[in-house]
Amino acid sequence: MIPFSVLDLSLITQGATPADAYRNTMDLAQLADALEFRRYWLAEHHSMPGIASAATAILIGQVAGVTKQIRVGSGGIMLPNHSPLIVAEQFGTLETLFPGRIDLGLGRAPGADQRTAMALRRDPHAPDRFPEDVVELLHYFEPADSLPHAVRAIPGCGLRVPVWILGSSLFSAVLAARLGLPYAFASHFAPGQMEEAIALYRHRFEPSDRCASPHVMLTVNMVLADDVAEANVLVTSLYQYFLALRRGRPSTFPPPDAGLCQCSQFMRISHFKISGRIFDHRSCEFSKFQTKSQRAKMSISLITATHVQLIFDTGIFPN
Question: Membrane-crossing residues (predicted)?
Answer without folding.
Answer: none
